[in-house]
Every structure is written in C-alpha cells, then in structure tokens.
Amino acid sequence: MIPKLIVHNSISLDGSTTGFEANLDIHYKLLSSYLPDAIIVGSNTAKTGTQFFCETIPPEEESDFRKPEIQPDDPRAYWLIADSRGILEGLLHVFRRSDYGKDVIVLVSEKTPEGYINYLKERNYDFIRAGADRVNIRHALEIANERYGFELIASDSGGVLNSILLEHGLVEEISLIINPVIVGKNGTNLFRTLEKSDIRLELLKNQIVEKQCVHLVYRVLKE
C-alpha cells in the first residue's frame, strides 16, 4: 500500500520557492499539524536546507554513528531523503541532530555508489533501495509502508521531486503557504519540471495565518 502523500511548501504570490525568506516557524508548525510519519525531501533540497540548521557543517562526532534513542511518544516525523547519487555524504548528521525529525531514512537505487552505501551502513542509517538508476518513488513508498508502517508522508521539497510525485499520481493533497511577496523572473517555480497538464484540484481549506500569509489546502482530483 502507498501512504497518503501531502505536498507542503511555502511559496511567493507568484509561485516561487526561492528568492524570499519564508517564515519557518509557520512552515513547520503547519507541517507538523498533519502529524506525518515521515517527511520526504529531495537530495538537492536537503543539501540547500542544511544552512537553515547550521551556518557551517560541524564535524561528525562519535554519537553521529549511532541511531538516536527514540521514545514511543515522540510525535516527530522521520526524514525520508531521496539521494540516489550520494550527494549528502558527510552531511546527514545535520539532519540526524535536528529537532525537526526522529532520524534519517535514505532512498537509494541500484546505481547508488557503494562508497555511499558503506557510509550509510557505518553510521547506522536505514536505507531503502528501489529503482535501477534513479529512485523509484512509488516502490520506495510501498516499502516504507510495509517496513515502517508509514501511513502519511508529507513532501517538503523543491520543484523536481514534487513534479515527480504529481506525475506519478502519488499526491493526494497540496498544502501551500502563500507569502506576501512577488519574486519575479528570478523565481523558481514550485512545479517547474512538471510535464503533465490539467491537474484538477478541489479547495479544502483557506486560512489567514500570522495576518500576512494565506494557507491553502487542495485535494488532487483523480482522473
């Protein structure tokens, strides 16, 4: 079974994910309100996102090689990071240390470098191998449901991964925080690589948050 998937993102009024400073308190407060079992992120978004957790990447410590102790009542989600090329080698401990997630589970493919697989094993990171070249997201989500019992996953990623999720019909809801800013021509569209057109949506919720932002939630209508 594939878990329910919600795309969650903060964007400008003209649909950009970059070129402005998002309110992370609002972003993560609304994201956590869904109580997702895991938050799926693409490797490029994750690499860029390390700057939000720390100004410079700290060196690894002995504790970074061990799984964190997780309490049964811990409400936080797991990080589910798609990284078939291993670009996060040397960076994953930033996510393991963060207060926003329980621990990291990495999605890899058959072509993922063995050096990166060894890096994951040495540090006791769980990983899901699905797909020949790139990660087969549908298969990976099925495994995540079977292995960990994940029933709800939220995507907190950029345009590439979100487009893939929509292309494959995996998204059930889209949650957008509209920020009061227009980025213009230098913006990065939320679904910039999406080739599928005419995806129909149904508005479920619209709410003003913090007097400035608007939270919109849509259901993705199935064909």
From TrEMBL:
GO terms (BP aspect): riboflavin biosynthetic process
EC numbers on record: 1.1.1.193, 3.5.4.26
InterPro entries: DHFR-like_dom_sf, RibDG_C, Riboflavin_Biosynth_HTPR
Listed SUPFAM superfamilies: Dihydrofolate reductase-like
Record keywords, A-Z: Hydrolase, NADP, Oxidoreductase
Limits of the Bacterial bifunctional deaminase-reductase C-terminal domain: 3-207
Key word Transferase present: no
Pathway annotation from the record: Cofactor biosynthesis; riboflavin biosynthesis
One example GO MF annotation: 5-amino-6-(5-phosphoribosylamino)uracil reductase activity
Pfam families: RibD_C
Protein name, as recorded: Diaminohydroxyphosphoribosylaminopyrimidine deaminase
Organism annotation: Methanosarcina thermophila (strain ATCC 43570 / DSM 1825 / OCM 12 / VKM B-1830 / TM-1)
